[in-house]
Amino acid sequence: MTRTSRSKPIAKPQRSKIFEMVAIGCSAGGLDALRTILKALPADFSLPVIVVAHTPPDNSYLLPSLLGAVCKLPVSEAREREPALTGHVYVAPPNYHLLIEQHRHFALSVDDRVCYVRPAIDVLFAAAADVYGEFLAGVVLTGANSDGAEGIKAIKRRGGLTLVQDPKEAYADTMPQAAIDTGAVDQVLPLAALAERICGLSSNRPKL
Amino acid sequence: MDKAKLDDIETGLFLEALYQRYGYDFRHYAQASLNRRMHGITAAAGCRSVSELIPRLLHDESYLNELLSQLSVPVTEMFRDPEVFLTLRQKVLPVLATFPRVNIWQAGCATGEEIYSLAILLEEEGLLNRTQIYATDINDTALQIAEDGIFSTRLLDEYQRNYLAAGGKSNLADYCTDSKDFFRVHERFRRKIVFAHHNLVSDGVFCEVQLILCRNVLIYFDNILQKHVLELFHESLSRGGMLCLGTRESIRTVASERLFTVLDREAMIFHKTEQTSQ
């Protein structure tokens, strides 16, 4: 039997990569930052967007509707065993870690807090990196703890794209700075440019 | 081969070894959480990859207990989701009160905080005396903590808030003896609960009960195992029995199998459906 060399599923040279998922993490000051980004996404944005926001459990129930009010895409809480659909924005439910399985359905866990929080950005980013590999874009926004830094490393290790809000303009700079300090960040951008960059991730996808 | 695929192969081999060597079957656990735990276990053991752990698993019997504790991480709180406990108090306990003897099973009790919460509700509603509670888990270390009923006072304030939100009629402190750092649930609750080792994957029906509490356990199982366990619950419930799951668990399987019908969607409480002849 001969070993056949497998061709890569997506041709890399010249053409830019076709992304399959955007994962966004934020904490203190995150609601405004999220609004800015989600507001910018066009109605035909072709990727699923998953958001982990540290908010007090009571408020996070409201997060999907607060974000849905400014976003052209449908926004809902990520539900266990449901598929991550393109052109949808999903928010992690309060008090659960959000993960994603190989078959691209959501999973939840009540495992210990990571960086004192649940849901943790690190948990989502690591799980999504395992599934989407180089076709994942991870974004860390404003926040006052270091959650997301390990996740950024995991995404980079799998060849994904890592973007971080410029700590200079972030409401809280600890989280973006912790991500940058890993040395695994591709681009540091102010919010407006970040929104534009994320919009661009979907533009190469053929419209169906 | 990409690293993620390699990890999957190694984890698969590890779980196969665990099953064949000791009979513990984690092969139908949901993969994402399991992978995360395996990463932690591998790092804690000082290994670079999951496959490096396999020889130890096979040849060092003393490692099993440690491993099981790490594979089934017990995290629980008293009166977690107080609104669920309020619904149990208002909707479920009045139904249980119609039975002369009440049997309750908590499957996956971890360190016991939730079952003690339920026992307190039962006492406040005048049901504890005629109730027998079974609380089971596969994690013997967690079971021992549950049986002792001793918890850190660090979270007591939060528990008290939850308790009041769950319609508590007194003070949580009235049900415990406490010292500076720890509190112990009163003996009258502890003696009403039998803590036992039971594996939802491989063990069968062991009692007939009117209420099963199994919150945030099935989220760790794949669809096949989830279905298996729901069937086990259906068999274990008496006519009119009820099942309480975690607030964010998928009811799609529950609904599609027609084993249960919704009693309270918010609190994720279901009625057993009586099977019509097939």
From TrEMBL, chain A:
<feature type="active site">
    <location>
        <position position="147"/>
    </location>
</feature>
<feature type="active site">
    <location>
        <position position="27"/>
    </location>
</feature>
<protein>
    <recommendedName>
        <fullName>protein-glutamate methylesterase</fullName>
        <ecNumber>3.1.1.61</ecNumber>
    </recommendedName>
</protein>
<keyword id="KW-0145">Chemotaxis</keyword>
<feature type="domain" description="CheB-type methylesterase">
    <location>
        <begin position="13"/>
        <end position="198"/>
    </location>
</feature>
<dbReference type="InterPro" id="IPR035909">
    <property type="entry name" value="CheB_C"/>
</dbReference>
<dbReference type="Pfam" id="PF01339">
    <property type="entry name" value="CheB_methylest"/>
</dbReference>
<feature type="active site">
    <location>
        <position position="54"/>
    </location>
</feature>
<dbReference type="InterPro" id="IPR000673">
    <property type="entry name" value="Sig_transdc_resp-reg_Me-estase"/>
</dbReference>
<keyword id="KW-0378">Hydrolase</keyword>
From TrEMBL, chain B:
<dbReference type="Pfam" id="PF03705">
    <property type="entry name" value="CheR_N"/>
</dbReference>
<dbReference type="InterPro" id="IPR022642">
    <property type="entry name" value="CheR_C"/>
</dbReference>
<dbReference type="InterPro" id="IPR000780">
    <property type="entry name" value="CheR_MeTrfase"/>
</dbReference>
<dbReference type="Pfam" id="PF01739">
    <property type="entry name" value="CheR"/>
</dbReference>
<protein>
    <submittedName>
        <fullName>Protein-glutamate O-methyltransferase CheR</fullName>
    </submittedName>
</protein>
<dbReference type="InterPro" id="IPR050903">
    <property type="entry name" value="Bact_Chemotaxis_MeTrfase"/>
</dbReference>
<feature type="domain" description="CheR-type methyltransferase">
    <location>
        <begin position="1"/>
        <end position="273"/>
    </location>
</feature>
<dbReference type="InterPro" id="IPR029063">
    <property type="entry name" value="SAM-dependent_MTases_sf"/>
</dbReference>
<dbReference type="InterPro" id="IPR022641">
    <property type="entry name" value="CheR_N"/>
</dbReference>
